[in-house]
Specification:
The complex is a heterodimer of chains A (about 450) and B (about 200).
Chain A (H helix, E strand, L loop, with lengths): L4 H8 L1 E4 L5 E4 L2 E4 L5 H9 L10 E3 L17 H16 L3 E2 L10 H7 L8 E4 L13 E4 L2 H10 L1 E4 L3 E8 L8 H12 L7 E6 L1 H4 L3 H9 L8 E3 L4 H7 L8 H11 L12 E6 L6 E3 L7 E3 L15 H5 L14 E4 L1 H4 L2 H11 L9 E4 L4 H9 L2 H7 L25 E4 L14 E4 L2 H10 L8 H4 L1
Chain B lengths: L5 E9 L6 H4 L19 H4 L21 E4 L11 H9 L3 E4 L4 H9 L3 E4 L2 H13 L4 E5 L4 E4 L5 E3 L4 H9 L3 H6 L2 H11 L1
The chains are: A alpha/beta (about 450), B alpha/beta (about 200).
């Protein structure tokens, strides 16, 4: 029988099934961060259980950690306690742990793949909705709640209803300054924040195949913003090239053997999806959001569309925008480059390519936060730090940072932030903060002009 | 764990769509290391002024509305996987959340905390919001055994879907970990076959 990529990996991980109930799914790797794991470890202790497969669990703090002075203890006592709790749990249960400041530490969804811990064909979970990121390697990766984290700690399994399958195909050539983030925001704006709820998405088509691994990770990262359980891309030479030689990737004979298996991980030609969408790359422009969910996105030079739906709060009021308004030229206050969405080396290259030889706008507060220490090292190896510093930018230390403002990187109430992160929910970047989501090119253009600027027209504007 | 069979209660109406988990419980409240105490911060930014005084116009601050059933607009619980959202809802005292559509992870999290998510049709949901406008103390009855939800103001009812396994969990008060621990042999044999 013809199978989709999703079916092949899912079926291989089924331990038991029950009639009219969820599947018992075996999990190859789980990541734990400090926010969604303490209660799971506590539950384990209460039940008198040990971690069943400690070698398959990797822990690192990322949500709470400051992005400066990581060599010093965390100032906020509540954040410090949460991070210390993770340290203690990892130590007590004998789990692999990369503390703040460790060379392999970073935002889990950046550090995991780049350390070779997430591999094609795996099932991967974490108490974090953006776990969908790891699907870019050709894995089934999805976010779970803390009770489910406890289940994996105790049994290396979760109970999951089998999701339906969806294929989103994008074909054609992306325009200049249009990247994976714009693709994702475009797709979400078309299918809505609940458009893929109940589905597992496979991204396909020549545009997707032409993306670098970093771009694919960005695209899959945002799957959850359309409600999808996860997103994935069939592994190919780009994937294998990316994985090869990474710290924990298989090596030698093991590599050859597993590579042969990975090459079988693709959707069969005759396989049928429960739902399909097709988009054209040429229709995608640099994107921005204007509202308070990631589905409220538009091309950067569009006007804000009229509201649809009867029962809605007042996202435009929250944002201080009105229907029909164009946002080009709108002054902004903050720019954030980073997060599990856009904190990778390619995002820093993109940002640097725009700001090279120019200067940061004087009133803009810019936070440039590498997704991991490895990204940080690469920034310096490639000399991007010089370009950024000459343009008046400072590079901070890795962490989730202003994406959800659990540390000190908070956007004040009423201020506008052009953010390369994943959510523009009310208060996400700080109480009252107004978030405009965008890719690294648009963020860089805003950082040097101080306003919403189309990166394609930058040289005309200046 | 607490069992659930049948419940009749007045409702708390929240006719807003796409209520995301950052609204249910903002990230700054996620720093606790226990499951308790989140109910006080449920919908914190809609519920309290900056200085912590309750916002008069928010439904949870209106003493007329009492009850253990939350009724919300479609796509409830989108966004983050934080189970703190389910803990906040359970901690506040809700036993049931009714909407026409739930985000997947939230739905799992709610069920793992014995909060029953009940999916109804758009029209049934709209009618509940109409009923509560006319009678603030109108009630719903949620009967899990028969998978039936009734708007007692109109007498209309709908059948809701829940898989047989989860229904059994609610009726008997056992959870997924109990179940998975009983499957250890299967897990070991899976590992042997696949290594």
């Amino acid at each position: 029988m013809s199978k989709t990529l999703f079916d092949k990996i899912w079926d291989k991980h089924v331990v038991t099934t029950m009639e009219d109930g969820p599947t018992q799914l075996y999990i190859d790797r789980m990541y734990c961060h400090e926010v969604t794991s303490p209660q799971a470890f506590e539950g384990l202790r209460k039940r008198g259980l040990n971690v069943f497969r400690p070698k398959q669990i990797t822990c690192m703090p990322d949500h709470n950690i400051p992005t400066i002075h990581q060599d010093k203890p965390i100032q906020d006592p509540v954040s410090r306690n949460q991070v210390d709790t993770l340290t203690r749990n990892a130590c007590d249960f004998g789990l692999e742990y990369y503390p703040m400041g460790h060379p392999l530490n970073g935002v889990i969804h950046v550090a995991g793949p780049e350390n070779g811990l997430s591999l094609p064909g795996m099932t991967i979970v974490c108490g974090d909705s953006h776990t969908s990121t790891h699907g870019a390697l050709g894995a089934i990766a999805f976010g779970i709640g803390t009770s489910e984290v406890e289940m994996v700690l105790a049994t290396q399994c979760v109970l999951q209803p089998r999701p339906k399958t969806m294929r989103i195909s994008v074909t054609g050539k992306l325009g200049k300054y249009v990247g994976a983030k714009d693709m994702a925001l475009y797709i979400i704006s078309k299918i809505g924040t609940g458009g893929a709820t109940g589905y597992f998405v496979e991204y396909a088509g020549d545009t997707v195949q032409s993306l670098s691994m970093e771009g694919r990770l960005t695209l899959c990262n945002l799957s959850i913003e359309s409600g999808a359980r996860g997103g994935m891309i069939a592994p190919d030479e780009t994937t294998f090239e990316y994985v090869k030689g990474r710290e924990f990737a298989p090596k030698g004979e093991k590599w050859e053997r597993i590579l042969a298996y990975w090459r079988t991980l693709k959707t069969d030609a005759a396989a049928v999806f429960d739902k399909e969408f097709e988009f054209r790359a040429e229709d995608i422009q640099p994107m921005i959001t204007y509202g308070t969910n990631p589905g409220m996105g538009m091309s950067i030079d569009d006007a804000i569309p009229a509201a649809t739906g009867t029962l809605r709060a007042t996202p435009l009021q929250y944002m201080g925008f009105v229907e029909g308004e164009r946002l080009i030229g709108k002054p902004v206050d903050y720019v954030f480059l980073g997060s599990c969405t856009n904190g990778r080396i390619e995002d820093f290259r993109a940002f640097a390519s725009i700001v090279k030889g120019k200067k940061k706008a004087p009133d803009i507060v810019a936070w440039l936060v590498p997704g991991s220490w490895q990204v940080n090292r690469q920034i310096r190896e490639e000399g991007l730090d010089k370009i950024l510093e000459e343009a008046g930018f400072e590079i901070r230390q890795p962490g989730c940072s202003a994406c959800l403002a659990m540390n000190d990187d908070k956007v004040p109430a009423g201020k506008y932030a052009v953010s390369t992160s994943n959510r523009n929910f009310e208060g996400r970047q700080g109480p009252g903060a107004r978030t405009i989501l965008a890719g690294p090119f648009v963020a860089a253009a805003a950082a040097i002009t101080g306003k919403i600027t189309d990166p394609r027209k930058l040289n005309i504007v200046l | 764990m607490e069992k659930f069979k049948k419940l009749t209660s007045p409702i708390i109406p929240l006719p807003i769509e796409n209520v995301d988990t950052d609204q249910i419980i903002p990230a700054r409240f996620l720093k606790a290391t226990t499951r308790e105490g989140f109910g006080n911060n449920l919908f914190a930014d809609w519920r309290y002024e900056k200085d912590g005084t309750p916002k008069k116009d928010f439904v949870l601050n209106n003493p007329v509305y009492q009850g253990t059933i939350l009724v919300a607009g479609k796509n409830f619980g989108s966004g983050s996987s934080r189970e703190h959202a389910a803990w906040a809802i359970a901690g506040y005292g809700f036993k049931v959340v009714v909407s026409s559509f739930f985000a997947d992870i939230f739905k799992n999290n709610a069920m793992n905390n014995f909060v029953l998510p009940v999916v109804v049709s758009e029209s049934f949901l709209a009618e509940i919001f109409e009923s509560v406008k006319k009678d603030l103390k109108m009630t719903l009855t949620v009967d899990l055994e028969n998978q039936q939800i009734t708007n007692n103001a109109t007498g209309k009812f709908e059948i809701f879907v829940i898989n047989a396994y989860k229904k059994e969990c609610f009726l008997k008060g056992f959870d997924d970990i109990d179940y998975l621990l009983s499957k250890k042999e299967d897990i070991l044999s899976y590992e042997q076959t696949n290594n």
